[in-house]
Amino acid sequence: IVLVGDSTTAVQGGWGPAFCADHVTSFAACLNLARGGRSTYNYRAEGSWTLVEAEMRTPGYAATWVLIQFGHNDQPGKPGRSTDLQHEFPDNLRRYVQQVRAAGAKPVLLTPLTRRQFVDGVLVEGLAPWADSVRTVARELQVPLVDLHGRSRALVQALGPVAAMRLAQAPATQAQVASA
């Protein structure tokens, strides 16, 4: 299993390490190649995808699954990272899927996790269009989908602004708790 994505998947603070440690059996390998601050564009442009391609072609495995999650850094306002939601983002996802399949591996798309941002106790929904785009590409290309956005959104909204801070990569500061 190869994990591809941004900081929400990456070794330092993402869901990837717990997934590999707690949900992958001992007879399977799990490699986390996610990198913080990456989008569907700069993950490839900076050479990280080359590492994934090499891993997909490594002989000896019965199957290789590549789990792909992006969206946070594809949003506007991220210089050198952001992608156009209508064309670039879904086209980049399609290209990843096609290359995974061409390497003989099996792609899985994951929607981006929600952010824990609230206004007056209501979860701000800024990543829904990117999650919808991932869902559309998954349907179109008949790729398995894990809806992390839907699941994390429901959990974070149910927890509320203060309790949701427990899900943070780093403990909340007193100022953050006070402002929630």
Describe the structure.
- This protein is of the alpha/beta class and 180 residues long.
- Helix content is 40%, strand content 12%.
- It has seven helices and seven strands; from the N terminus they run E-H-E-H-H-E-H-E-E-E-H-E-H-H.
- The strands form two sheets. The protein has a five-stranded parallel beta sheet, sandwiched between helices.
- Strand 3 (65-69), helix 4 (88-102) and strand 4 form a beta-alpha-beta unit.
- The radius of gyration is 17 Å and the shape is globular.
- The model is unreliable at 170-180 (pLDDT under 50).
Task: Give the gist of this structure.
The chain has 7 helices and 7 strands. The chain has helices at 16-23, 42-45, 48-56, 88-102, 128-141, 148-163, 174-179, and strands at 2-5, 31-32, 65-69, 106-110, 118-119, 122-123, 145-146. The longest helix has 16 residues, at 148-163.
Instruction: Describe the sheet with the most strands.
Output: 5 strands, parallel
List the uncertain runs.
170-180
* Total number of beta strands: 7
Described by its quaternary structure, the protein is: single chain
H/I helix tally = 7
Give the termini distance in whole angstroms.
Answer: 38 Å
Radius of gyration, in angstroms, nearest whole number? 17 Å
Provide mean pLDDT, rounded: 88
Fraction in beta strands: 5-15%
Structural class category: alpha/beta
- The helix content is 40-55%
Order of helices and strands: EHEHHEHEEEHEHH
Give me the side-by-side strand order of the main sheet: 2-1-3-4-7
What's the shape?
globular
